């Protein structure tokens, strides 16, 4: 071989190596893209038309998780692969905790409802549904910022209501009495399934979960290995759940802002571990598939030794998503309680359900909101059979982005108060099962005239009763 030929072969070898590396990078970016976008229905057309349009061209994935399909028991992976090939689709993620549940990416950019209908017609399929959008349900966006160095506890009427600013003395969760029994425990892990958490916030950093050294990073067959140091970001499929919206940080502060540190506020728990699960983007939007992947992660962490006992869900959707219900029920088997916001449309959830709060799963608590006088808040949803309990949810001061504090109203704020009381209860009674914990919380209320006929317990949560029982 002469010198020129030798140089030519070296150059060709280098080009091959570069091509392989570039292809791997493209695959990695595609996986991140698949995890980050939400479904937007494409132009409606038949699969035959789409096939004609694709004739002679390589199929290119749209990157959109189009549908969630639950295949019947016994359907093999080969059979599923043949169905995928026939429809020109691909599996984006298989949900390990619900056998047969699959997140499917449509490569033809078709209408999600049409794709779901075609899968539903197959004998191999138990159910198929669009990957519905989930979103925050704000009652208000009050964004008055105050200095983070100020001690704001006197403004936290929901912890200790002395009647100022039109409030009614005692219309609170009786936190001071509860803290005489327990101030929380760093052995209890609470997941905030939301927009992430500003885990560097001065009033939160001491109570943020860090994966213990003896627990391996999260591994998923389809999504890969996630170095989940402080939780999981579904949108980018990585371990950095930093909040870009603020809502998850609001919820985290209510549950567990550090007390006694001379900073802004107190959470219901002085000590706890908050595990952020980021499923909502900067605008407050996400998808059912993203929520399912996060819950699947939570179940895996629980099974691998993380003492994750409660998930706070302060968002919702009006469509019934069977796949979401299925994975929440699987979380019940793992011993995880879900506390869900009841919604802010001043409507009856018995007539117009709001999910996941309206799922009749035995590990779900649906929460309405009360005001400073112990009345049902004007914006709060209700439901004698579908909403179980109420908690303060109006003018709630909590942690916010930028190491700051804000006031917010909504059942989104009421739910983390119940979540916080649940964690406080477990700090005093760590061996409670999920059923026992739910039952105890529903018994630990102050029954109020304004809640009769509105929530099943007719009561607002009382932390002192829950901890002391």
Describe it for me?
The chain is of the alpha/beta class. It folds into two domains: 47-131, Alpha-Beta Plaits; 153-468, 3-Layer(aba) Sandwich (Rossmann fold), CATH 3.40.50.200. Helix content is 30%, strand content 20%. It is built from eleven helices and 19 strands. It has a seven-stranded parallel sheet, with helices on both faces. Strand 7 (218-220) and strand 8 form a beta hairpin. Helix 6 (247-256) runs parallel beside helix 9 (411-428) and helix 7 (288-303) runs parallel beside helix 8.
Query: How does CATH name the architecture of the largest domain?
Result: 3-Layer(aba) Sandwich
* Average residue-wise pLDDT: 86
User: How large, in whole angstroms, is the Cα Rg?
Assistant: 24 Å
Integer count of domains: 2
Q: For the record, give the distance between the C-alpha atoms at the N and C termini, rounded to a whole number.
A: 87 Å
CATH topology of the largest domain: Rossmann fold
Number of helices: 11
What pattern of helices and strands is seen along the backbone?
A: HHEHEEHEEHEEEEHEEHEHEEEEEHHEEH
Percent in helix? 25-40%
Question: What are the main properties of this structure?
Answer:
469 residues; alpha/beta; Alpha-Beta Plaits; Rossmann fold; 7-stranded parallel sheet; 4-stranded antiparallel sheet; 20% strand
Map the helices and strands.
Blueprint: H1 3-36, H2 47-54, E1 65-71, H3 77-87, E2 89-94, E3 101-106, H4 112-120, E4 125-130, E5 133-135, H5 175-179, E6 184-194, E7 218-220, E8 224-226, E9 232-233, H6 247-256, E10 271-278, E11 285-287, H7 288-303, E12 308-313, H8 322-333, E13 337-341, E14 364-370, E15 389-392, E16 396-400, E17 404-408, H9 411-428, H10 434-443, E18 445-447, E19 459-461, H11 463-468
Parallel strand pairs: 6-10, 6-12, 9-10, 12-13, 13-14, 14-15
Antiparallel strand pairs: 1-3, 1-4, 2-3, 5-11, 7-8, 16-17, 18-19
Helix pairs in contact: 6-9, 7-8
């Amino acid at each position: 071989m002469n010198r020129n030929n030798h140089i030519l072969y070296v150059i060709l070898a280098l080009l091959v190596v570069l091509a392989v590396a570039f292809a791997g990078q493209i695959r990695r970016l595609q996986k991140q893209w698949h995890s980050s976008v939400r479904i937007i229905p494409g132009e409606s057309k038949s699969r035959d038309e789409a096939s004609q349009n694709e004739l002679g061209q390589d199929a290119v994935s749209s990157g959109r998780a189009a549908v969630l399909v639950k295949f019947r028991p016994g359907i093999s992976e080969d059979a599923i692969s043949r169905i995928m090939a026939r429809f020109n689709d691909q599996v984006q993620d298989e949900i390990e905790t619900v056998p047969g549940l699959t997140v499917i990416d449509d490569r033809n950019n078709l209408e999600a409802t049409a794709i779901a209908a075609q899968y539903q017609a197959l004998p191999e399929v138990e159910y198929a549904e669009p990957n519905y959008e989930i979103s925050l349900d704000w009652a208000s966006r009050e964004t008055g910022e105050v200095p983070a160095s100020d001690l704001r506890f006197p403004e936290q009427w929901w912890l200790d209501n002395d009647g100022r600013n039109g409030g009614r003395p005692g219309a609170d969760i009786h936190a001071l009495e509860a803290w005489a029994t327990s101030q929380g425990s760093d052995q209890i892990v609470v997941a905030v399934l939301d927009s992430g958490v500003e885990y560097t916030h001065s009033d939160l950093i001491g109570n943020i979960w860090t994966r213990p050294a003896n627990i391996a990073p999260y591994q998923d067959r389809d999504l890969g290995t996630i170095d989940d140091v402080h939780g999981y970001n579904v949108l980018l499929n990585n371990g950095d759940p930093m909040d870009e919206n603020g809502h998850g940080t609001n919820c985290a502060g209510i549950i567990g802002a550090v007390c006694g540190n001379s900073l802004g506020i107190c959470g219901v728990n002085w000590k706890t571990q908050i595990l952020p699960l980021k499923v909502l983007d900067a605008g407050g939007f996400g998808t059912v598939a993203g929520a399912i992947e996060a819950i699947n992660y939570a179940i895996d962490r629980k099974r691998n030794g993380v003492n994750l006992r409660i998930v706070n869900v302060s968002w919702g959707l009006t469509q019934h998503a069977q796949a979401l219900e299925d994975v929440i029920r699987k979380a019940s088997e793992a011993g995880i309680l879900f506390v869900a916001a009841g919604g802010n449309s001043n409507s009856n959830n018995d007539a117009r359900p709001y999910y996941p709060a309206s799922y009749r799963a035995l590990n779900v608590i649906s929460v309405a909101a009360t005001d400073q006088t112990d009345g049902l808040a004007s914006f709060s949803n209700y439901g004698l059979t579908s909403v179980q309990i109420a908690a303060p949810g109006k003018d709630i001061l909590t942690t916010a982005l930028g190491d700051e504090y804000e006031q917010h109203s909504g059942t989104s704020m009421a739910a983390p108060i119940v979540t916080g009381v649940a964690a406080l209860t477990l700090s005093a009674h760590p061996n409670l099962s999920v059923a026992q914990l739910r039952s105890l919380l529903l018994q630990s209320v102050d029954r109020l005239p304004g809640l009769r006929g509105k929530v099943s317990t007719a009561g607002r949560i009382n932390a002192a009763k829950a901890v002391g029982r």
